[in-house]
Amino acid sequence: MIMKAETRIRTIGIVGSDPIGRGIATSVANAGIRVIMQDISQDAIKRSLDFINKELDHEISRWGITVSEKKSILSLITFTTNLPDLKNVDFVIEAVAENLSQKMNVFAKLDNICSESTIFVANPATLSITEIAFATKRQDRCIGAHFMSPVFKVPIVEVIRGVYTSQATVDKMLRFLAQLGKQPVEVFESPGNITTRTIVPMLNEAMTILMEGVATADSIDKAMKYGFNFSVGPLQLSDILGLDRVMHWMESLFRETGDPKFRPCPILRLKVRAGQLGVKSGQGFFKYDEDGRKIKGS
Known about the structure:
Layout (H helix, E strand, L loop, with lengths): L10 E5 L3 H12 L3 E5 L3 H20 L5 H9 L1 E4 L10 E4 L5 H12 L7 E4 L6 H5 L8 E6 L8 E6 L5 H14 L2 E6 L6 H17 L5 H11 L6 H8 L1 H15 L8 H8 L25
Parallel strand pairs: 1-2, 1-4, 2-3, 4-5, 5-6, 7-8
Antiparallel strand pairs: 6-7
Helix pairs in contact: 1-2, 7-9, 7-10
């Protein structure tokens, strides 16, 4: 579908350069939209650029993109340590830690910087869009968009409507995602929305099965992977997501709902306390090499 020039999104701001933020930046630039990516230090920016280069090179190696497409993507991404550089963006997407006060602090600062027309997009897994929006004077122009990792490859985005989110904001968000070639799923605000709320009990139960000695980690993952046509099993998926991150989701959902199915399994707590956080630390339920590949027999 060809969009009218006046409805196209021209520039996006992203605050935070964690893997989700970097993935969003790559996807946005791949759609021909300019990105201004802000983080707190030059070291963080360098890590982000190195990561994006590595991911794009991987896509080239598998014939996903060409070398010229990589150059085009990189040319559209600008890095900065200054929030005021996001003053005139169409959307600003926060990609900071899953922490309510941190997300609210980012939006409060941006509210005094960005133009009135800028739409604020939160990217939470379990937190309230409505509560985050209270840090601003533009609650009608605040919306949630839960991008799934790896963002460049996963088409689904949960579009989360807060209590005060306007229909005009929802419509503009949907047009933006159409430009990216993403598949939006609209949801009304609820703890965990669809994806996190559905996946967390399965991950938790797989960990409980392991803790009870019913089967080995490898057997659990094989049963679920090949039995239900998953790309990876639940324990390896937990490692990929980050065990500390998964535990935070569980604690947040348990706190919000009081439902015991979300209470973190003791073996998860033990691994997080031991610093065995999954792929990013080299060990979780399995062991991984420096490129994040599972070590055979681990």
